[in-house]
Design goal:
By secondary structure, this protein is an alpha/beta fold.
């Protein structure tokens, strides 16, 4: 406790004596007790001193109860020592000049006394110091204070059996057991270690004998210090024990250092583990975004660039390379995603309080919602129904979460990927305008911009991907020029990067293929091939598959240019290479094998398409023998069957499409055979292979969801109509859809009702042929060809309308006048339709030998019109309709369109349809 401040130095007021003067006091004794006690011995010692020396002033300093745990904490000891130093300095300074000052301390009191001795006022001195059970270290430097004149004599009373000091030596930092083994260097009359066979409190016996006999003489007199040593004889074992006790200081320091390190490092380790766990959770969610999607159209390399933006922010910039393109194990990511699909990532209640919002948690929630949306889209892989509406809602929630943390948490890459996936979903759900908006936001709203308006952290591949997907959405809106502009912008953004250029040029080439601009498509395919071949040498798998896709496009261009043999050979070479490559199963991971297998199946299908779409039916080509045609169709069926065997049940959409194509090819083969009279008389034929295959196709088709069936509707419709034409008609089949009735009993293989069903479907699709993709346009032309095939037996007067519709489809989708490389492709359909447009008694062309057939041996090309041709429609072998931008002029004389073409005559009564440069198109004029 702190005593009152003395009023004046001259009064000699002693702190703690109630203000009584000490002007005549020549002796002051200060006592300090230890821990875990209230210092009862201090009162006993005071009574002894006052009885032995009347007038002595005894100041008993008490600091209250001090626990053992508090003793082990150095800052708490320092606080008590600071208070005692202040009291001691005031007491010494208040003592009269020349007064004797003695100090008696026990246990922890010795520590307080030792800390106060250096603060003795200048000119003052402590006459006698008695320590009992001292907790100081034996190495305490008493000699410094003796040389400085602070001390007279020091007596250290030691208890040889003091176990408390042994614990102090073992556990308390900066403390020791000088009250058991003595201070080092204290030898002589002024410094003395005295030893007793007692414990820590053995100095205070019941009758105060030790204090009376051993302390009073020292405190009341100036005689020599009598030595006392009751220590037992030292044995080797006792010496080793003593040595160990003296060196416990090092063990204590090591233990204390370990404790300090534990106190410091354990929280740091917890923080490190928490940060690591946070990184792991962040990385796991990013990895789930990369692996769980199974969304068509993703380029693994581009996804890696995009997600690396987020991964680098978490300190794992190389880890993303190990998760892109890997396959989820049956009990791994799939199970995690299934559990994730049931998790509710709603914000906790305290996160709604302003200031407590956790951006990291919000980013985790955004990625969780994003992964759940991807899980819905990938459900088809697991045999479950895909819920596109639920995925749309999840994507929208995820985008809202991403927006809230986009400026504070490094989630830019995941945010951009979410917008991309959401845009792909909107495209699939036939919301192309909304999809275009999402793809544009990727480039404008996700990554922060610098002062120059640029986004330096945005991966270039992201710009290319967003432009490519935007072009795809524009194509679905029939905005072909806008789609081409986006892809050309992507070419400029690629900056001579072969990896990106090969991707963009490939997309541009397929865009031109859809528009039947074969020359440009070939040009872009060759550029893509040049960029990709340099990358394949590096061994990157994505470029291998892309190169196969490019070669696939070049082979298709050859087919559309009429070089079917060359095209078939290229496809056959692709199939062989892919089959050889897939034999090296150990070189590829599951995803890569799946991609290779998909490319193999697609190449097999296109290889069969070459012969299927380029076949020459004996009905329209008199030089084609029936046996040759049937043999060709058998090869087509074999090629389709090989693809069907390869796909098995892994891809039901592709399997159904292949089955329908094979059924259509087999029906066309049956049409080339003459139905025997015996078969017609016997009624319906027995169940044949074609019926079994069609039934399997129908089962596969019906197993798909309504959304997936939509893409196969055209194939299903044509195949179903072909099967109706394949069967022998019954009496009801002679009733046409419009109610007309043919004479029953007439021997005919085809019924009018089946023909009208096919005709109604072709009219429906032909009305929107410009919106159909190239493959569906070709299937529509096949359906029209089927109608013209059966026209020989039905004798329907509407056959000429079917032929005109075929030419209209060709003219609307190919624009042959602008693309001469398509001439062989379109001439085949011109010849087929022309055979049905010419009346049986029509006058043949000049130079065409009589009886040579409906068409000449080489079709006649129309005159080259002046001005740019806009539209060409072949009406017959000798008649065509041409739309040009030529101003209306007088009829011109005939001249060949190109060198080598046969001259044709101009009908004076016919007109050419031209377009005035400043107004509407002029009147039409036909040319022969």
């Amino acid at each position: 406790m702190d005593g009152p401040e003395p009023e004046r130095r001259s009064t000699g007021a002693i702190p703690g004596q109630g203000g009584e003067t000490g002007g005549g006091a020549a002796h002051v004794v200060i006592t300090v007790h230890g821990i875990r006690t209230y210092g009862d011995w201090q009162a006993d010692l005071k009574g002894l001193l006052e009885a032995a020396e009347p007038g002595v002033i005894v100041l008993n300093y008490q600091y209250g109860y001090f626990s053992s745990l508090a003793f082990l904490v150095p800052p708490l000891r320092w606080l008590v020592a600071r208070r005692f130093r202040k009291f001691f300095a005031q007491a010494v300074e208040a003592a009269p000049e020349g007064a004797r000052i003695d100090l008696v301390a026990h246990s922890f009191g010795t520590y307080l006394a030792a800390s106060a001795i250096p603060h003795i006022p200048r000119g003052r001195k402590v006459h006698t110091v008695i320590f009992a059970g001292s907790v100081l270290r034996p190495s305490f430097p008493w000699y410094r204070y003796h040389q400085a004149g602070y001390l007279g004599r020091v007596v250290n009373e030691c208890g040889w059996d003091d176990a408390i000091l042994l614990l102090c030596q073992s556990a308390a930092l900066m403390m020791g057991m000088a009250g058991r083994v003595g201070f080092q260097g204290m030898v002589g009359g002024q410094f003395m270690n005295r030893y007793y066979r007692c414990g820590h409190g053995g100095y205070f016996d019941r009758d105060d004998r030790l204090m009376r006999e051993n302390w009073l003489p020292l405190l009341t007199g100036d005689g020599p210090i009598p030595p006392i040593d009751h220590r037992p004889r030292l044995t080797p074992l006792g010496g080793a024990k003593l040595f160990l006790m003296n060196n416990l200081q090092f063990i204590k320091i090591a233990a204390a250092a370990a404790m300090v390190m534990a106190v410091v490092l354990i929280p740091l380790d917890w923080a490190r583990k928490a940060d690591y766990q946070k990184r792991v959770e962040r990385f796991a969610n990013i990895a789930r975004l990369a692996n769980a999607a199974q969304i068509p159209g993703r380029d693994p390399g581009h996804v890696r660039d995009l997600l690396r933006v987020d991964v680098q922010a978490g300190g794992n910039e190389k880890s993303i390379d190990h998760i892109i393109g890997t396959e989820a194990t049956p009990d791994g990511d799939d199970v995690a995603d299934a559990a994730l699909a049931e998790d509710d990532p709603a914000p906790r209640w305290w996160e709604r309080i302003p200031g407590l919002h956790d951006d990291a948690r919000e980013a985790y929630r955004a990625r969780q919602l994003h992964a759940r949306a991807n899980y819905q889209l990938a459900a088809g892989k697991r045999g479950n129904a895909r819920d596109l509406s639920k995925a749309k809602l999840l994507y929208e929630d995820a985008i809202r979460c991403y927006k809230r943390v986009n400026l504070h948490d490094p989630a830019n890459g995941s945010f951009a990927l979410c917008l991309m996936d959401y845009g792909l979903l909107l495209s699939e759900m036939e919301f192309p305008e909304l999809a275009i908006e999402q793809f544009r936001k990727i480039r404008e709203d996700v990554f922060p911009r610098d002062a120059r308006g640029e986004s330096p952290n945005m991966p270039r591949s992201l710009v290319i991907d967003s432009l490519g997907y935007e072009a795809t959405a524009l194509k679905s809106l029939e905005k072909w020029d806008g789609a081409a502009d986006r892809l050309l912008q992507a070419v400029r953004e690629s900056s001579d990067d072969d990896a990106l250029l090969s991707f963009v040029y490939n997309e541009l080439a397929w865009l031109k293929m859809e528009r039947m601009d074969i020359a440009k498509a070939q040009e872009y395919f060759l550029k893509a091939q040049e960029s990709c071949e340099a990358l394949v040498e590096n061994g990157q798998f994505v470029f291998k598959t892309r190169l196969y896709h490019i070669r696939h496009g070049l082979a298709m261009a050859e087919r559309l240019c009429g070089r079917s043999d060359t095209s078939y050979g290229q496809y056959d070479q692709l199939v062989k290479e892919l089959q050889e490559l897939m034999r090296k199963d150990l070189d590829f991971n599951p995803k890569e094998r799946r991609d290779l297998r998909k490319r193999l199946i697609n190449s097999m299908e296109r290889r069969a398409d070459v012969r299927f779409f380029a076949r020459r039916s004996p009905t329209f080509y008199r030089d084609v023998r029936n046996e040759h045609y049937l043999g060709l169709m058998a090869k087509v069926e074999d090629d389709y069957q090989e693809a069907i065997d390869q796909v098995a049940n892994d891809d039901l959409i592709t399997k159904a499409q292949l089955l329908y194509k094979k059924v259509i090819a087999r029906c066309l083969s049956e049409m080339a055979r003459d139905a025997p009279a015996a078969e017609a008389a016997a009624g319906r034929p027995a169940l044949g292979p074609i019926d079994i295959e069609f039934a399997e196709a129908e089962r596969t088709y019906n197993a798909l969801s309504p959304q997936l069936r939509k893409g196969l509707k055209l194939f299903h419709t044509i195949a179903a109509c072909c099967m109706s034409l394949h069967k022998l008609p019954d009496d009801e089949a002679y009733l046409a859809i419009d109610g007309s009735d043919q004479a029953q009993g007439r021997r005919s293989r085809y019924a009018p009702r089946a023909v009208d069903e096919l005709r109604s479907q072709t009219e429906q699709y032909a009305a929107r042929c410009e919106t159909l993709t190239r493959e569906r346009v070709e299937m529509l032309l096949v359906a029209l060809e089927v109608l013209l095939e059966v026209g020989d037996e039905t004798g329907d007067p509407r056959i000429s309308q079917d032929a005109s519709r075929m030419l209209a489809v060709v003219g609307a989708t190919t624009k042959i006048a602008s693309h001469h490389e398509l001439r062989p492709y379109v001439e085949r359909f011109n010849r087929i339709a022309g055979a049905r447009l010419v009346a049986p008694d029509a006058k043949l062309m000049a130079g065409d030998p009589a009886g040579s057939g409906r068409l000449g041996s080489s079709p006649v090309w129309p005159l080259a019109p002046a001005g740019r041709p806009l539209f060409y429609l072949r009406l017959s072998p000798t008649r065509a309709l041409v739309l040009t931008d030529e101003p209306a002029t007088s009829p011109r004389t005939a001249e060949p369109a190109r060198q080598g073409d046969a001259p044709v005559e101009v009908d004076p009564g016919a007109r050419t349809l031209t377009k005035r440069t400043a107004g509407r198109p002029s009147a039409a004029r036909e040319r022969r």
